[in-house]
Structures are given as structure tokens and as C-alpha cells.
Amino acid sequence: MSDKKVLTTNNGAPIADNQNSRTAGPQGPILIDDFQLIEKLAHFNRENIPERRVHAKGSGAHGTFTVTNDISKYSYASLFANVGKQTPIFARFSLVGGERGSSDTARDPRGFSVKFYTDQGNWDIVGNNTPVFFIRDPLKFPDFIHTQKRDPKTNLKDPQMMWDFWSLSPESLHQVTILFSDRGIPDGYRHMHGYGSHTYSLINKDGVRTWVKWHFRTEQGIKNIHPKKATEIAGTNPDSAQEDLFKAIEQGDYPKWRVYIQVMTEEQADNHPENPFDVTKVWSQKQFPLIEVGVMELNRNPENYFAEVEQSAFEPSNIVPGTGLSPDKMLQGRIFAYADAHRYRIGTNYQQLPINAPKCPVHNYQRDGAMRFYTPDNAPNYEPNSIDSAPKQQPQYAEPPMHVPAGTMDRHDHRVDGDYYSQPRALFNLMQSEQKQLLINNIIGSMKNVNHDIQIRQLKHFYKVHPDYGTGIAKGLGIDIDLIKN
């Protein structure tokens, strides 16, 4: 018997001729009974699944997470059980607003998501390369993303939409300042930090909850691309970040990130002057210093991009015992939105795909649906039941009650605090003079064709952050400074 692989149909039957369709005579019409032709054409029509509504273009790789510091006083999660413990991971990096064909050098936040295949289930951190976000209420998320996509009439990207929304949403100032700074265009994915961005929680064996912020700090060093160079790369190698990550791993130059947490007790949160669950703001690292947890290393490229990167599904609702969520409004919205996006885009059984499937046993009462291929043998599909061998709930894994501020259930205005300026001001003051000028030039380039009234509205916000910030942009746009001082 030959060692050559036999070409087959999807049902495994050998194919005798893959060059010619079945026809009625040499020049006759094609016959509908050519199931091989029908199968190839029908499958080809369905080879693309809908692209992600956000984070459409991305790159991914497999690797490991290794514990380097004991954090058992904060969490009893098995992946943190002891120093040296290693957990397999899959990480995906992405552009937030662009389509799958976007350039990797676009000015855009980068998604930074990690799936930990722990021995008690999959745990996902779904974050970005920035510690904050543009909005703090998920009700505004579809509106915001619409401004980052294409105008429904022209089908063009439109700075007018972006700045109109941002100028009416001053909570965006912190993220806007980061986006238009030198860190707005990272040099590939290896040279940027990652953040969980939201406030999450950890729970220890005594049932004590601690609020945490996750930080992934690149061991390769921060590198960014100047806008002019980014434009050149976009025209010559729009997949530069994908190529850089793949080649580095292929050559054994495995990228690493050192993983840290900031921690805040529930009592500290209750007395914190700012809302600790506001994703538009950071926690002071002087007050809440970084605590090392471990090291993430990427050391294996996907064998098939579609199967492992395009079909990978991350969701903040994937938590494991010893980890938890928080009252962060944006996080609460994403808990629903991400899993629902996967159900639409990939199918209701997306968690059974190899890239998403847990490495530990799965037992539940979900059944059927498109592409279902795993169902426990001889098991009921209802619960409670009286069958001893059927899966049962385990009360010892219950989370402690989560304290939330008392108050009325209503649509509370999330813009009542008024402090949109102190944290962007602190960031602006940290910048070197050349960084400030680059930030100002980048914003001028983006705002130059925006309506005058929107320019004035946004410039007033920049001026409140810092007079030099607003004045520098106003001069570049040819706008009288006196118009933005009040």
C-alpha cells in the first residue's frame, strides 16, 4: 500500500478525479449529481465566518504562564498554587477598530487577551495595551464603536464622527491622550505592555475578596513607530506585526511579559476618593504598587491561523475558582456581550472547538445546537436529578457575597463626578517635551478637517487638562486661544 495520502471527500470517500466536473458529454452542462463539485463550492462559500465586530484583525500564539511569586493570600486559584507552576496559555493581540484588512500600524488601541487553560477550567483576561478605556458605561459601547468604523453613507472612516463623540464624552480624555501619544502606534505586538484594564477580583481560601488590576509588562522593551514611518510600513507591509510575532517565535526568540497585580482591599475601595471600578481611570502605583505574579512566554505559533486565531474566543465571563469579577459597569456589559458575540459569529458550541476547549473535564446539562460533537454518554439532560453519576453542584466553590453600594435602582448619570481632567493632566505632565509635541501634532492631523464647533468643544477639554495641551493644538488649527479658555 502506498504511503501517499488519499484525497477524499469530507465523508472520507476516496476521490478519483479532482480536475473535472461531471457533465452530460464532453461539452455538455454540469450535472447536479456531482456532489463533489457541490460540496467544494458550498464549503468555499462558507469558509469565512463573520469578522469580529471589534478586534477583527489579530495575531496569536501559544505559550506558558509560570508562577514566580506566592499570591496565595489573595487567591486560592489552582494556577497560582505554588511558585514554579506552569499553565498552558493562548494569547491574541489585535487592532480594536480596524477590519481584517487593516494595517498593523494604524493608530488604534491594541487588544491584549490571554486564555489560561487551568486544571479547573479556562480563565480569560480580556484587555488592551492601555490601562483605561474611552467610556465607562456599556450602553455607549455600540455608539462609540460606530464612530471608529465607517460612515454609513460614505463608507469612509470619518474623524468628524470620532471627535464629535469624544468632545461630548469628556471621560474619554485619558484614553484619547494615550491614543494620540507616541504609544498610539506600537512597534508590533512584542514591544507593548498589556492590561486587564478593568478591575477584577481575587478570592482567597478564607473567602476574602481583593480587588485587582492586571498588568503585563513587556520584557522586550517598549518600542513605538513614528506616524510617518507607520504610513510607509502600511504601504509596504500592512501585516508587519503579524510577521514580527510569527518570525520571532519561529526563530526561537520567544517574547515574554512579566505579570503583576495591583491590589485594593474592599475597605480601601469603600474609602477611595475615585470610583475604583471606573475603567476610564487608573490606580496610583505609589498607593497600590505592582506585585509580581509570574511570567508569560509565547513559544509556539499556530499551525492553522483560522482554526486557532480566527476561531479563538475570549470572554471575561470565563473565571475559575479563586478569581472573580467586579461592579465595573463596562466589565459587566462585556460579560454578556463577548460570549454572545461568539455564539453569533462562531456558533453556540464555540467552546467545544479545540482552541477554546478546556483541558480539564467538562460536565453540564447543555445539549445539541449546531456543530455539537460532545455529549456525555448515558447522562440526563436535566437537573436536579436522582442519578448518582450525574454531575452535581459544588457549594464549596461559591464566591463570598459581593458588597455593592446601597442605593436606588435607576439609570444613574455616570458623568456626575466631573473630574475628567486630573488623570490626563498627570499623564501629560509625565511626558517629555518631544512626546508632548508629537501628541499635539497627531491630534492636529486628526482634527484639521473636523467642524469648527466640534474643534472648539474638544479644545476646551484639552485646555482644562493643561493650558499647553489646548493651546498647542489650537495654534496648529489656527484657532483663537481666547475661544477655548472658558
Automatic annotation (TrEMBL):
Q: Residue ranges of region Disordered?
A: 1-28
Cofactor list: heme
Going by the record, the broad EC class of this enzyme is oxidoreductase
Please name the catalytic residues of this protein: 55, 128
Q: Does the keyword Ribosomal protein apply?
A: no
- Identify the residues that the record assigns to the Catalase core domain, covering every copy: 8-391
- Protein name (Swiss-Prot/TrEMBL): Catalase
Give the matching InterPro entries: Catalase (IPR018028), Catalase_3 (IPR040333), Catalase_AS (IPR024708), Catalase_clade1/3 (IPR024711), Catalase_core (IPR011614), Catalase_haem_BS (IPR002226), Catalase_immune_responsive (IPR010582), Catalase_sf (IPR020835)
Enzyme Commission code: 1.11.1.6
Q: Which family does it belong to?
A: Belongs to the catalase family.
* CDD domains referenced in this protein's UniProt entry, alphabetically: catalase_clade_3 (cd08156)
Chain intervals with Polar residues compositional bias:
7-24
SMART domains from the xrefs? Catalase
In Gene Ontology terms, what is a biological process of this protein?
hydrogen peroxide catabolic process
The reaction(s) catalysed by this protein are:
2 H2O2 = O2 + 2 H2O
Q: Which GO terms describe its molecular function?
A: catalase activity; heme binding; metal ion binding
Tell me which PANTHER family the record gives: CATALASE
Q: Where does heme bind?
A: 338
